[in-house]
DNA sequence: CAATACTAGAGAGTGATGCTATCTAATGCA
DNA sequence: TGCATTAGATAGCATCACTCTCTAGTATTG
């Protein structure tokens, strides 16, 4: 497959495909001469992945590149790789100063209430802290009750996810990293729909 | 409070506050002369809200403006207002062509499986369709089993949310619209943490 | 074999976005 | 009196995700 066929197969402008090549998001094809290279299905799949990550998931190209690099070359430690993937996901939060004895008090309290491990080195801990601080600043603080409710349900979802994780380590990393990122828009859409459904039923009941 | 005090109170550069004023995200203060106006707590709160929406929630200023306009001036129909709020939230999806008899097949199937109302006019339906199409294209399709699992848990969260909705209509709209948008980063952070927690426990168990 | 189409690779240009800086004329405050 | 501050307008800037253009070489087709 030549590059124009690849662009067609992915439904993208040729210039965009070239751009992804230049930016290192898409691996190059096999060069057959100074001005020719051939591409295959793996390139089509990769382009679809790039569009999924930069589109619905809302990653910048730099973030997408980091995620894709992890999928391409995951360590054998699922836990560490997952941590690195989460660091690449938005929102990007400023690092805590090293000398702060308790940099994430809200997140710590939340995780304690949930009975989950609190480890300040996790990016998601900083993300949770910043999200909680932010809703607080906006005047809609989250009660511990609500946090526990959310946390419990999401933990059930996480259990479900991990139960279905492939056994083979490489596949497991890919599943977990991509599943975390790619399924997020689905989750948000489902919550919005659930809100509307519940609201509609209440409206009718009035 | 003068504008410089407002900027200090919100922790923002003066130029940025002026910018939000210009762009209509922040209501102007009460003019006391040709070159003076006074601002109050409502302006501080609004600035915090703007930062929450454009920061962690990841809205563009245009999207934030739409959400804030709904909060400022909600209709008395909670259901319709919520619908308009969801339209303003990312991801923005292309409108379906009017003559397509079944524009959102994946979303329709999902909602039927969940026993929720399917109404193609909802923005969240289009968002769900696009999210599902996108994970499918990326090679990680979502099984109906998973969809039902996710949907059920999120519906429980939505029920929880709506049970705590204020009675007064104006407050109810604000609560629902802002709660939908502002709590999303919290939900995502909690899921990521749950993934890590579950993964860590499995790793140890091996 | 000649004309045309296509390609790799690189550089520059583009439009949107979210600020940030500068300027002017007027006013406040010490 | 004089320095600081303000409203309001305009212009500038950095980033991002493309998009266009160009060159030199290669493939294809009639």
Summarize the structure.
Two copies of one chain form a homodimer. Helices cover 66% and strands 3% of the residues of chain A.
Q: Can you give the mean pLDDT of chain A?
A: 95
Helix content of chain A: 55-70%
User: Helices and strands of chain A: which structural class?
Assistant: mainly alpha
Apparent shape of chain A:
globular
Low-confidence parts of chain A: none
Tell me the Rg of chain A in angstroms.
Answer: 21 Å
Give the distance, in angstroms, between the N- and C-terminal Cα atoms of chain A.
61 Å
Which structural traits does this protein have?
2 strands; DNA-binding; 206 residues; two-stranded antiparallel sheet; homodimer; mainly alpha
How does this model look, in words?
Two copies of one chain form a homodimer. With 206 residues, chain A is mainly alpha-helical. The termini of chain A are far apart. A two-stranded antiparallel sheet of chain A has the order 1-2. In chain A, a hairpin with a 2-residue loop joins strand 1 and strand 2. Chain A has ten helices and two strands. Chain A is 66% helix and 3% strand. Chains A and B meet through helix 3, helix 5, helix 7, helix 8 and helix 9 of A and helix 3, helix 5, helix 7, helix 8 and helix 9 of B. Chain A binds a DNA duplex (30 and 30 nucleotides) through helix 2.
């Amino acid at each position: 497959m030549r590059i124009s066929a690849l662009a067609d197969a992915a439904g993208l402008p040729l210039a965009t495909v070239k751009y992804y090549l230049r930016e290192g998001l898409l691996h190059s094809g096999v060069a057959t001469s100074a001005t020719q290279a051939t591409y295959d299905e793996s390139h089509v799949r990769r382009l679809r992945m790039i569009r999924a990550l930069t589109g619905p998931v809302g990653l910048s190209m730099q973030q997408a590149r980091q995620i894709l690099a992890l999928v391409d070359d995951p360590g054998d430690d699922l836990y560490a790789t997952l941590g690195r993937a989460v660091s690449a996901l938005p929102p990007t939060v400023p690092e805590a100063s090293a000398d702060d004895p308790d940099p994430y008090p809200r997140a710590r309290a939340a995780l304690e209430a949930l009975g989950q491990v609190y480890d300040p080195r996790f990016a998601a801990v900083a993300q949770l802290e910043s999200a909680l601080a932010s809703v607080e600043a906006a005047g809609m603080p989250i009660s511990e009750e609500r946090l526990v409710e959310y946390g419990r349900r999401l933990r059930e979802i996480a259990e479900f996810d991990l139960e279905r994780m492939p056994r083979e380590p490489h596949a497991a990393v890919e599943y977990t990293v991509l599943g975390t990122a790619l399924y997020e828009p689905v989750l948000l859409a489902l919550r919005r729909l659930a809100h509307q459904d519940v609201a509609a039923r209440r409206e009718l009941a009035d």
